[in-house]
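Hi team, as promised in this morning's meeting, here are the two structures we talked about. I've kept the exact order from the run log so nobody has to guess. The first one is mostly here for context; it's the second one we should focus on when we meet again. Sequence first, then the predicted structure tokens.
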Amino acid sequence: MLNLAFTQSVELKDQIHHIDTLRVEILSIPIPPKTERKLRWEAKATRIHSSLALAHNLLSRGQVVKILASVTRHVPTEHHDVLAYKRALDYIEESWTANPKPITFATASTIAELALTHPKETIERSVNSVENAIRTTLEYLENQTDHPVIQAGIALCLLSTSAAIPGDSGLVARLISATFLAKHGFDIRGLLTVEKNWFSGESSYDIALQSHATQGNLNHWLQFFAQTLADNLEERIRDLTNAKLHQDFPAAFWELNDRQKTILAALSEPSTTMTNKKAQKLFGISQITASRDLSKLTTLGLLFPHGKGRSVSYTKA
């Protein structure tokens, strides 16, 4: 039996009101498209590094950034965790931002298959072993009218503890929590990086998660979750108003050539797709050149890939 008990204290209500205010403030800040693209890319790199670090992956942020920026088709085994987590974040961004559909066990299964790098059969077996607990958690959350921050917080806590997937190390739990935030527009245009706050205060994060078991309720955890979310939004506002970027790469990394700009323009219609063969025909270029252009646009988060192998198609992000 899952313990879903919590009380909306005055402190928790105040924190959520503060989050609502910060969210509106961030969404009201005018950001040039090119700057926003850079900020979102930097945010995704930070989220991936921080969440993997919480799962005891020893890669530095600089290493994560270089892996994300690489367009090679031959990916070393030690880089798979980074790219798998990115695929899961891309899936959430594309499929769940402002999506009115319920988040279900099937959603959790999809995220687990994208984010975890174990053999597929192992992942399926692990997810199915806690199917009832995951279903109970998600069905409860979807049938409540709680604030999205509370929903996301409960999802993260339970899927990290009593409904945790064996071998997950919290990755899927954090991604499903992110799905609830994206669904209700609390990913803040892809700029939220709350995983960084959890990693920088890892011991507090672990203690707060375990308080669900030690105290028999979700009160301490939800206050911690809301506070770290508010702290991160305040940091993001400072970043936006000061126009600070990590500048991991030279300006040329962000520049697009004429072909890449034309590909984006051709995909302005939402139902339009691009493939390697279409790009070859459009520009009279080789398969390798088309692949490099499409990979660059995907790396920058401007295109979403669909399918595998030669059947991959791309849509505009």
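And here is the second protein, the one for discussion:
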Amino acid sequence: MGLSGKEYFVRDLVIDDQYGVIKSNASVQEAAKRMKELAVPDLVVVEEGTEKVLGVIADFDIVQNVVAEGTDCSNAKVISTMYTIEPVSLDTPVSLAFTRMQTLRVNVVPVVENGKLVGVASIQDCWSYIPDVIPDERGLIPVSNTRVAEFWFASIAAVTAFIFGVLFPLAGVFGFFIAEQADVMTLLGLADVRGGLLFFYLFEAHGTDFFVPILSLIEQGGAIWGLNVTISTLLLILGIIGMLAIIYTSFADIRNIRTGRVVRILLPSLVVFLLILEWIFFAIAFALAPIPIAVGVDPIGLTMSIIAMVLIIVAINRDYIFKEKGLIESQKAEVK
């Protein structure tokens, strides 16, 4: 029973009977050709002979499980590539069908009647019937639409994290470490010993009247500075990719588009990992310097890096920030 007081069933949906079917022993290549022929992204997989529904194969499964693994599509079988999902009946509640698809992050579920396949129900169709049926109970902040709130929250958090963690150190707004300029000039073999402080940013170090690219420290300071530049380069590239990944996956959640763990978790997490490595390798580089260098942490830079990492982690786990406002209102009504 939904908050609206009415429960819908699969029979209330417009069942798509223009579905594609393929035998379980067919090859993935045959499945791809069938999808192209019918202009559909999914095919229902049935057992040879019995016509029993076994699952669904989607274009996403072919890309992830076959193409990405370098497997020959003409040899790979549909049954080893498909996803297994229990079919629903016409009397199955829409909320259950939606939950079944949402749990597996898939777009369609087969619909059977008396053991016979009658069509498929899409997650979009189910969602349109249950805007208030399955409230999001996991979060802390009540909102009327959790998906939209999560999209804006994750997008703002991702952009802010990129600015604080990558863009500002790149532009020289604040850095990672602060060293004595005279010590660094001595390391470089420069006779002119000047005073002042040298701020180490993503790819370069700036003093009051002195500028040095990090790459120029490799010859005198060792290969560790080259590793620093490599990490900085990866941080810049993956910082952009990670930011876009968070924005894309949060938007995909609104549209009920399935996204994998690589885009959803791994890419953004790599940005956090590289930020930590950046600080560690800077510290190691100073510790391994052939001459002692008086060095300290840039407190603003460290604070901003921590904020950036926290924002990325929170954006990845945005599901635990917001909850459905309707759930609270329903609970209050039940108490009364």
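Starting points for discussion:
The two ends are 18 Å apart (CA to CA).
The first strand starts at residue 21 and ends at 23.
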